[in-house]
Amino acid sequence: MSTKVKAYGTSSTENPLEEITIERRTVQAHDVEFEILYCGICHSDLHQIKGDFGAFPPPIVPGHEMVGRVTAVGNHVTKFKIGDLAAVGCIVDSCGHCEYCEDGIEQFCDEGVTFSFNSEDKISGGHTFGGFSKTYVCNEKYVLKMPAFEDLASAAPLLCAGITVYSPLKHWGAGPSKKVGVLGIGGLGHLAIKIAKAMGAEVVVFTTSPNKVEDAKRLGADEAVLSSDAEAMAKYSRQLHFIIDTVSAKHDVNVYLNLLRHDGTVVLVGLPPEPLEIGAFNVIMGRRSFAGSNIGGIAETQEMLDFCFEHNITAESEIIPIDYVNTAFERLEKGDVKYRFVIDMASL
Amino acid sequence: MSTKVKAYGTSSTENPLEEITIERRTVQAHDVEFEILYCGICHSDLHQIKGDFGAFPPPIVPGHEMVGRVTAVGNHVTKFKIGDLAAVGCIVDSCGHCEYCEDGIEQFCDEGVTFSFNSEDKISGGHTFGGFSKTYVCNEKYVLKMPAFEDLASAAPLLCAGITVYSPLKHWGAGPSKKVGVLGIGGLGHLAIKIAKAMGAEVVVFTTSPNKVEDAKRLGADEAVLSSDAEAMAKYSRQLHFIIDTVSAKHDVNVYLNLLRHDGTVVLVGLPPEPLEIGAFNVIMGRRSFAGSNIGGIAETQEMLDFCFEHNITAESEIIPIDYVNTAFERLEKGDVKYRFVIDMASL
To answer: Are A169 and A145 within one domain?
Structure first.
């Protein structure tokens, strides 16, 4: 049993997004259905519609930073009732019994996690459609309780951008007496600054854009360094405990490895399409690491939402109507957004 | 005050090593002098005499895996008396007061560690001369108490190769219920197999050489895999907790990152001259790390010697006279040694 739902999608990597109709399963015993109020736009939406992660059968409906209000619940649902705020991020299903799921890192599920769009849908068949649509239906296990953020629209990007930076900051111990570097100020980087500061760390931002230096400080960074300024960079040699690298283009991570103290880590959360080169001495000296991190598990995503609500952290966002979405993707590709687009889904 | 000492060295990267005379300082209050009985040959000796790490003023006397017997001690020496076995590895001096030295990782000393050869000698002036010589003089802080190994010659390589693998195996928790990969079987790799087994880990060896598969098992590996065998490699996907990578040539570490479980680490201890390429997804998926490690501190080197003595671990070595050393370097360059040359210094 399924319901027709209005959405925004594309049938080809060549075409712009347009209004289409998709089908969502009707609510099962453990399902929650919610009306999507706001949906953030993430760089990986752009990658997917362009086919950067490989071909995918049409239609593609992107969107994985959804905030909404519950419109229906299955018989066995205990976490939600109609009218509650709810949110869904990247993960909408996983096996639930592998060691990864048991450890709360469902994103690495042994049987393959189901993402909120462009994933094989193991429950309904076909593939999943994302949040550029009127409603979403999901097992309550993967639905987050959305705190009542004053600016609910700007909280939507927390569902992917927020957890993507919160998880490694937490895992690698950002907090008081730690010096944390943030590399790149975009959707991810600007939230990393806010979250790392709220965790109590000293935050140093590295950017290639002179016009972002002041912005980094406005966002809460203790210091902001233009990465082309060799003298300023040298000042941080062997100074940082941890650097979160949000850059999605090819770049020289060796420069940043050398800013780490011993046992420090540069953790990549961006997705550069080309491999990054690492010189042996840059990890061997100081027992440094180059690591990666990918979103976070469901329990940790809930923890992040509660943390951000408590610390009044949301994304800096530009709220747009759905018919602006193709222009928004063009601007996103050029880096022309401060710092996240969020679609007001009432416009659909 | 100094003493003339017979040594084997070279005045140019073009020339073979030959007998020369160097000067060593006479024993100071905290110094230990010992007659060098055995000295191992390490790949980094070869790098240094070839100038791979940059030009260095002549003469170069390599050798940093020294085992000997104490012949003189300064007035304030408490750790040694004449006749004791003693050993010196890579580190012969450091500032002693930076956080690295205080943390027992003198190899990363903020003011720059003094290596046993080809380092600025901050005590005597000039530069340090290594273990291809009759005697060595060193502050007792950097002299190790050498356990009475039955095969003392074959214990010499522990001073560099041994600590280079022991330190990361310990740091990353190799032990019971851990599956540890060893990449490459040479001077470092063959000791990594023995030490990881003695720590209680399950050891899987990866090699490009069909003729080393059996040898890996003889050395104690639970399994040995030919890295060109895609089917055998696939069996280890997401299986290993930790991989120690001893390869000193350019190679594809992505293959090995994908053999790691979540939160696993590939740690490089080899010194490939070219950068290694890492694809973003290979670290992002599973929160994996690519790290490096460089020898170990003095206290940890002592701990390693005691551990190896207790577990009867020495290198598989080919004992040679000093006048064979140029041929040994040629063979080392071709990988023609199983697995470490050790010079019987009585031949000098």
So the answer is: no
**Interface residues from chain B to A (CB-CB < 8 Å):** 100, 103, 105, 108, 110, 168, 171, 238, 254, 262, 265, 268-273, 275-294
CA distance A184 to A127: 33
Would you say A300 and A278 are in contact if contact means Cβ atoms under 8 Å apart? no
Per-residue model confidence as pLDDT tens digits over A298-328 = 999 999 999 999 999 999 999 999 999 999 9
Q: Which residue of B has its CA nearest to A257?
A: B291
CATH for B149: 3.90.180.10
Instruction: Residue A219: give the domain boundaries.
Output: 161-292
* Shared domain check, A147 and A87: yes
In a domain, A307, yes or no: no
Q: Are residues A129 and A216 in the same domain?
A: no
CB burial of residue A151 (10 Å; 0-12, 13-18, 19+)? middle
Q: Do B108 and B184 fall within a single domain?
A: no
Residues of A in contact with B286 (CB under 8 A): 108
Q: Calculate mean pLDDT across residues B320-330.
A: 97
Q: How far apart are the C-alpha atoms of A18 and A10, rounded to whole Å?
A: 6
Query: What is the distance between the alpha carbons of residues A151 and A313, in angstroms, rounded to a whole number?
Result: 10
The complex's ipTM?
0.94
Average pLDDT, rounded, for chain A = 96
- Encoding tokens for residue A85? 């705020």
Q: What residues in A contact B293, CB-CB < 8 Å? A: 284, 287
CATH number at A279 reads: 3.40.50.720
